[in-house]
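re: that complex we talked abt at group meeting.

here r the seqs, copy pasted straight from the sheet so there may be weird spacing, ignore it
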Amino acid sequence: MIWKILGSREITVDLPKRFDKWSMYTFIDSVINEQLDAKCSKIFFNFEQLQFIEPVGVVVLSNLIEYFKRLKVSVWFKGHTSATLPIKFLDDSGFFKQYLSKSLFESSAIRTTTIPLHLVANDRATEFLYFKLMPWIENEVGLTESSLATLRSSIEEIFHNIRDHSGVNIGCAFAQHYPKKSEIQVAISDFGFGIPQVVRNAIPQLTDPEAIRKACEEGFTTRSNVQNRGAGLPHLMRYVTQRNSGTVLIASGKGEISASKSLQGTKLTVRNADGFYPGTLVRVILRTDTFERVAEDAQLEPFEW
Amino acid sequence: MVIRIIDFTPRPSTYEDGEMIYAKISEAIEKDESVEVSFEGVLSVPSAFINSAFIRLLETYSFEKIRSKLKIVDSTKFINDLIKSRFDFASKAQKSQ
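got the structure back, here u go
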């Protein structure tokens, strides 16, 4: 793929007041088009209006910055020097240290409820899961090491998907614990080919939502990698919803699919997205109050055919 | 023959990790020997590993043959469920072809 910078102008883009899954599309659309061309050669991200940012917002922003670096688009920050709650949160999360080489405030430190922004290379994904993400979650909820091994291998499916299909080498990950809601949100995203584009290599006539639904059917494989058997994403959604009562959202291109628990098993909802997502975003919301059930799955059990 | 997975890969994850196990199992079944695969020290694996190490066997051997020669030990409920559901799905898909 060849990406372009459309015009030499500079633009200022305000971060949304609430930067989450709902506001991300408008934000993305303000800086790149569906062909992944940048709309300017110099961009100012203005943090002034930001009041709240979810893990999804952090990975979207990070992916855009990483993407612009590759395109040689000049990225600048504005309105980020006051210690407002969201700015302090981002600084505590290592965001400004990542992109400005140092934290904004001396008092900033990683919060126990946050796993800071990680750019995870494909060959380091296992290491990230074993030594960063899962120990952090287990520590947050007071479980012993490896209690949540089954969730680890389920989340590993997302990184395998990036490695096998996205055409890029890096996924961006961020996670946040919301103790009052008994939730842990994990957001992982790449700015690679995107699911619809990959699926249409096998079935050209599908729309983006249809293509995402297809990718989540067990046994469907695009054979973009000869090793695929079409089990990863279906397994992730089934396990997280049925054993953890959590939810999974996948956004890619102009389609979305969400998975939640229902009486019949896993309810899948496929829809047109409110905009365009370049690459693939996966948001997993884990319920911390059902982790005991997940831990049971890591107990030894005699195997019988 | 006993195959202890962690002797081959300390953190079984990818399709490539499973290929080593597949080669050992194939070798045993080819000689009509029984083979025991131990998950000792492994609590969970992604589907790619299971597909590579076990499900690929269906391309060469019948499910009955695999079941009669392959024994899984020291495994968790998660691993057992994943192996059985993947074999179940792949066997059905094979029959419908």
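couple things i noticed - Chain B touches chain A through 31 residues (CB under 8 Å). Residues 77-96 of chain B form the longest helix (20 residues).
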